[in-house]
Amino acid sequence: MIPLSVIVLLSYLVGSIPTSIIITRIARGIDIRDHGSGNAGGTNVIRVLGAKVGILVIAIDILKGYVATMLVTKLMYGPIPFNNQTPFEDITVIRMIAGCAAILGHVWTAFGGFRGGKGIATAGGVLLGLATIEVLVAVGVFSIVFVISRYVSLGSISSAVAFPLAMFFRHNVFHADLQGYNTLIFFSIGISLLLLYNHRANIRRLIAGTEHRLTRIHIPRK
Hints:
The chain has one domain. The protein contains 10 helices and no strands. The protein is 65% helix and 0% strand.
């Protein structure tokens, strides 16, 4: 059993595992950051190496967020070292902190020169255990936007915005009983702002009309 400071460090290291870099080096002997968009994320892997490898990368990145949030935090012992004034149980607060550390680890990976991905998949894994319905809504929004526009970045941006909006409408319009809503809504907004910041270059290209569409997905055949 370990203290909170070590939990945060472990979560950051779990998030820092450079999935796309490792897998593309094994599969093709390349650094994915030198190809395609230059981003160390699953979408760029799909673009460069095809759907099978890219989906594997995305799945592992989601798992990193989930592991950091739901499993690493089980190693915590004793009360948290600050006064928890949120409506959440202490363990949920710890999971939020660990989840943020994992996302930061993915974006600024210690194992890849602090050049990682944009954090969408890892954030999805973090939030999956905290707000499952809102994550499913965000995934639905991503799917619809991507199918219509063929822009992965626009789908990711839309899902980042949709997540806190789904939470807001569920609580305030549909009157769902969301435990700790007044805390979780600010956490979700913070995560969404971080993801939007990481997509700032994509937003500029979308406005300029120079963003790349993923019009075809290459599926290698034996």
